[in-house]
């Protein structure tokens, strides 16, 4: 089976949730299919060195994007019909390279990652009419934008987010009508889209975790330790993560320190801007990019996911669980995951309640109970091996439907 995996980003290095999903899904598909990975890289950076064969891919192609959020794209993005978040990923040179690829090789299926690539859908349909198109949704992008507008303290930014959300919603409708199959990261999102588009073929393909990669860390974390660190993991150039850590530091952390004065907060993630770096203090470390997050898990009392904006499901929660670290999250942060408050995770959306959850983990019995239940959860439901097998079957089914329709 020949699969084209078309993403708005490179899948390497594995330093963002989006890259993790792209890489692991593509890698699992490549266990039994021939996968060509086509990803885009920013205009002001060189492509990442990625050796396809070492990861099981037949081929990896990197194409250069144009400048994102250019004045022209911003203006056209406000006027429509395409939002700026779609225009940022469109260029004639990418379209020409895609056309050349489709004329030189045939594919049984094409997986496109999200609504950002919607402008390439007509080209795919024209040049690969027999290929089934699988649209994989990391999030419902319009939902993220609407939630951002609701929490933004800036009137102009909130207006722009609402306007962009309207246009993204229309683009999402075109994707739902244009692709053969849609895969969503959670049942909640699948059910939401099913109500809006009952004719669409919708499947839940959850985010996952490489359980084996974190097994040694999980074993070490079962040993007695001071567990003096509270960890936040995430790309620090993503607005939802910036909002989360600002709320954590300003609203939650003073409450935490009142209960547990010896704890330290470590913010682990790439590209922290000035608004994040300014949060650094004697007991708050902003690490920036790290090559391997596992060492940070080894002395962690908790991994926190204090998100107030977002959609999809958080891979950082699954990774922490696989690493044997208790997770404290807002309900929205854990949205879409099959978790149970008090059983395998602790949830609160108030500063005092969030701080109380972190303080409760000082008791070893509470920690051990949460960690064991969370490990069982990720091993049974969220290992990429199982998720990849499900995605492969969806591709096979979609190809059969497409051939039958033709």
Nutshell version of this structure?
By secondary structure, the protein is of the alpha/beta class.
Explain this structure to me?
The structure is a single chain. The chain is an alpha/beta fold and 406 residues long. The protein has two domains: 229 residues, Glycogen Phosphorylase B (Rossmann fold); 171 residues, Rossmann fold, CATH 3.40.50.2000. 45% of the residues lie in helices and 16% in strands. The protein is built from 16 helices and 13 strands. The chain has a seven-stranded parallel β-sheet with strand order 3-2-1-4-5-6-7, sandwiched between helices. A six-stranded parallel β-sheet has the order 10-9-8-11-12-13, sandwiched between helices. Strand 8, helix 10 and strand 9 form a beta-alpha-beta unit. Helix 1 packs across helix 16, helix 6 packs antiparallel against helix 7 and helix 10 packs across helix 14. The longest helix has 24 residues. It is globular. The chain starts with a strand and ends with a helix.
CATH topology of the largest domain: Rossmann fold
Radius of gyration: 21 Å
What is the end-to-end distance? Answer: 18 Å
Structural class by SSE content: alpha/beta
Going by CATH, what is the homologous superfamily of the largest domain? Glycogen Phosphorylase B
Lateral strand order in the biggest sheet: 3-2-1-4-5-6-7
Number of strands: 13
What CATH architecture label of the largest domain applies? 3-Layer(aba) Sandwich
Q: What would CATH call the class of the largest domain?
A: Alpha Beta
Helix content: 40-55%
* Strand residue percentage: 15-25%
As for the number of domains, it is 2
Summarize the main sheet. Answer: 7 strands, parallel
Give start-end ranges of low-pLDDT stretches.
none
In round numbers, the mean pLDDT is 94
Q: Topology as H/E string?
A: EHEEHHHEHEHHEHEHEHEHEHEHEEHHH
Specify the overall morphology. globular
Please give the count of helices: 16
């Amino acid at each position: 089976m020949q699969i084209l995996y078309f993403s708005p980003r490179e899948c390497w290095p594995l330093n963002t949730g989006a890259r993790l999903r792209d890489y692991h899904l593509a890698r699992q598909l490549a266990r039994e299919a021939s996968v060509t990975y086509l990803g885009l890289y920013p205009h002001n950076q060189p492509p990442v060195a990625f050796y396809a064969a070492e990861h099981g891919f037949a081929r990896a192609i990197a194409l250069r994007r144009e400048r994102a959020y250019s004045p022209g794209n911003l203006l056209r993005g406000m006027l429509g019909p395409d939002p700026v978040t779609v225009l940022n990923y469109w260029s004639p040179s990418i379209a020409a390279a895609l056309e050349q690829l489709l004329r030189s090789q045939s594919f049984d299926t094409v997986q496109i990652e999200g609504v950002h690539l919607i402008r390439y859908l007509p080209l795919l349909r024209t040049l690969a009419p027999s290929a089934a198109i699988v649209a994989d949704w990391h999030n419902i992008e319009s939902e993220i934008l609407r939630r951002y507008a609701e929490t933004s303290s800036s009137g102009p930014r909130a207006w722009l987010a609402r306007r962009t959300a309207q246009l993204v919603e229309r683009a999402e409708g075109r994707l739902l009508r244009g692709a053969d199959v849609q895969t969503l990261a959670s049942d909640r999102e699948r059910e939401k889209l099913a109500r809006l588009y009952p004719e669409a073929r919708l499947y839940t393909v959850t985010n996952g975790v490489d359980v084996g990669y974190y097994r040694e860390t999980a074993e070490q974390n079962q040993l007695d330790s001071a567990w003096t660190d509270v960890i936040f993991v995430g790309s620090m150039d993503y607005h939802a993560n910036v909002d989360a850590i600002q709320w954590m530091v300003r609203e939650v952390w003073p409450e935490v320190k009142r209960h547990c004065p010896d704890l330290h907060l470590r913010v682990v993630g790439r590209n922290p801007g000035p608004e994040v770096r300014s949060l650094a203090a004697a007991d708050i470390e902003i690490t920036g990019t790290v090559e391997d997050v596992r060492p940070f898990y080894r002395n962690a009392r908790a991994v926190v996911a204090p998100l107030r904006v977002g959609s999809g499901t958080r891979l950082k929660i699954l990774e922490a669980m696989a690493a044997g670290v208790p997770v404290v999250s807002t309900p929205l942060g854990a949205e879409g995951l099959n978790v149970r408050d008090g059983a395998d995770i602790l949830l609160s959306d108030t500063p005092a309640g969030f701080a109380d959850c972190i303080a409760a983990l000082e008791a070893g019995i509470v920690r051990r109970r949460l960690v064991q239940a969370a490990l069982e959860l990720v091993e049974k439901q969220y290992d990429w091996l199982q998720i990849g097998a499900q995605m492969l079957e969806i591709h096979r089914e979609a190809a059969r439907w497409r051939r039958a329709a033709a």
